[in-house]
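Tokens for Alpha/beta hydrolase family protein. Go.
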Amino acid sequence: MAVHGLGREPHPPAHDQSVTRRAIIFHGTGANPDVCWYRWLGDRLAARGFAVEIPHYPGLNVEPAETFVPHVLGRHRFDESTVLVGHSGGAALLLSLLEHLDVRVAQAILVAGYCTPPNDADEPVLQSSYDWAAISAHVADLYLVNSVTDPYGCDAEQGRAMFDHLGGTQIVRDEGHFGDVDQPFPTFPLIDRLVADLP
């Protein structure tokens, strides 16, 4: 399999390049790398020459951001050729990762992301506040993909709130949560198209 996750090492790009294009796909709350469209996207990106990681983080949105974010930052390499994709709680995690990076990544795509509690559930993945200028400074190309019919409240209003702070490109769909226990979503061609082919 051409995808990293659950302890496997990332596969090298399909063709030789002086800079390794890297994609890291973060699953949502209570999920794992084998649900939704994560593996499908990973395979698509690997075929395009990306070294792909799809880590499994059972502590996502369970552990507080103050301890969880440094743990995640220490497990991955981030550079100007890195593309980050996060879904739901994984997208919320990307806000904190971007804030605390010391480099500017190539791209971040937040799918069903949110920056404030979207419902009555506890959201330990969220910070009490964000340094929006730092987040913006650490990503060259930002996409916010939300749905008007998200059942958890990770909706277009959440996307707009992030867009108002960060700019980038907001994409509004009518596709629920883009994958859930009762919403099979095995492929996601939109995200595949959004991931930039880096030079």
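Residues 89-100 form the longest helix (12 residues).
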